[in-house]
Every structure is written in structure tokens, then in C-alpha cells.
Amino acid sequence: MKPLFLLRLILDVLAAGLLLAALAYNWLGNAAHEIIGTGMFLLLISHNIFNRRWYGMITKGWREPRGIVTRVINLSLLITMLTLLVTSIIISQTVFGFLSLTGAFTLRQIHASAAYLALLMASLHLGLHWSMIIGVVSSRFGMTAEGRLRTLVLRVVAITVAVYGVQSLLTVNVGSKLFMQMSFDFSDFQTATPAFFLHHMAIIGLFVFITHYGLKLIRGRKRRTRTVGHKAVERGSI
Fold first, then answer.
1. CA nearest 47: which of 68, 75, 16, 3?
2. CA-to-CA distance for 113 and 198, rounded, in angstroms?
3. Is the dihedral of CA 75, 78, 79, 80 positive or negative?
4. How far apart are CA 21 and CA 91, in angstroms?
5. Helices in 3-64 by DSSP H: which ranges?
6. What was the pLDDT predicted at 39?
7. pLDDT at 76 > cutoff 80
8. What percent of the chain has pLDDT above 90?
9. How far apart are CA 206 and CA 229, in angstroms?
10. Band of the pLDDT at 63, cuts 50, 70, 90?
11. What are the tens digits of pLDDT across the range 191-207?
12. What is the C-alpha to C-alpha distance for residues 200 and 181, in angstroms, rounded to an integer?
């Protein structure tokens, strides 16, 4: 594994961790929330610099199902992050407080909604590259041998996480947050902090699961279509 690639992976994981931490606003307080958010955006800038070639290919690959899914997810994540960045600067009280911008309550609602949408879109984005991440981690720790038992165990774990993720969506009440409705979940962080992070990690796992196995279904369908096409050609040539 190339050191630069490993560094990029570490920075991306750190950015995802900061996004998750920033959601715990009631636990952190405003100052820590803004500092963590600023760190996250700096890491996202580095992510975009490393992946700048993607912008030159943005108009290509729209005919393939995988290309469509990838670009819709990435563009949605980009728009969401820009919304999150702009609203965070406007409503800032600490890091960008010197700008003396006035943040209306509606902007704060939009910011909170964009934060949860960013979590979901980032999880879908992570799912696009999950096979590569698993391959890198397995190679790093010498777990290169594949077998039916290992595959079965990993799939059982994935399904378990996904099911718990569905429950967590309801527990955290993500729907109300996305539609800017008032919510008082996890107000007591002295007792609810572990549950808060566990539920949000399960939600991430659910959306990684959706993208990862959704792409597998697309690839499987594409292979079956090709197989049927080849058989039809062979029968026609007989």
C-alpha cells in the first residue's frame, strides 16, 4: 500500500469522525462544535484536492447505472457540504464571529438539517468505496484468504448492523431533523453519550450497507444481461 494512499484514507476517516462528533452539539457546546467543524472542512478541502481529477470526469459515465449512482451521490454530498459550510459561517459565534453576520433561526434549522443529510450522504459515499476499504484493511492486517465461513460471518455482521441502523433512524428521529422539526433527543448527554454515538454509527453502517450491496445487485444484473446477450448471439450463429 502506498504511503500517500494510506494518508488519504486516514484523513478521510478522521473527517468522517469529526462530522459524527460535531453532531453532538449539546455535549460539546458551541465553541468546540465550531472548532471541530472547521477541522472537518479543512480535511474535506484536502480530500477534494487529492480527488480533483474527478471534477474533470463529472460529465462522463452517465450511461452506466453505477456511474449514475456514483455521480448522484457525490454531487448531492458536494451540494450538502457547501450548504453546511455557508450556513456555518453565517451563524458562527466563535470561529467566524468576527464577521458579525446575523444568523436567523431558520438558518440554524437549515444548518442542522444539512448536517444530518451530510451524514447520510457521506455514508452513501463511503459505501461506494467499501469494497476497496475492506481490501486495503484486509491486506494491511494479512487477512487475504477468503472463504465461505468468513464471507458468511461478514454478511451476518453487516445485516445485523443494518437492522440496528433502521432502529437507530427511528430512535434518533432523523426524519424530524431532515425536515427541520423540533427534537429533543439525547438531551441528557451524561447518560446518553454512548448511545448517541452507537446509534449514529449504526446509521452510517446502514447507508454503507445500502450502497455497497446496491452496487453488487447492479453488477449482478449487468452480468446476467451480458450472459443472456451472449447466449442469444450464440444461438443466432448456430
1. 16
2. 20
3. positive
4. 19
5. 3-22, 25-28, 30-50, 53-56
6. 94
7. yes
8. 41
9. 34
10. confident
11. 577 888 999 999 999 99
12. 19
Contact between residue 42 and residue 18 where contact means Cβ atoms under 8 Å apart? no
pLDDT tens-place string over residues 123-146: 999 999 888 888 777 777 666 666
Cell of 223: 452480468
Taking phi over 0 as left and psi of -120 to 50 as alpha, with beta for the rest, 18 belongs to: alpha
Cell of 21: 462528533
Contact 19, 80 (CB under 8 A): no
Residues 38-52 as b or e (16 or more Cβ within 10 Å = b): bebbebbeeeeeeee
% of residues, the chain, pLDDT over 70: 84
Outline where the chain has alpha helix (H).
Answer: 3-22, 25-28, 30-50, 53-56, 65-91, 105-128, 130-140, 148-172, 174-178, 189-237
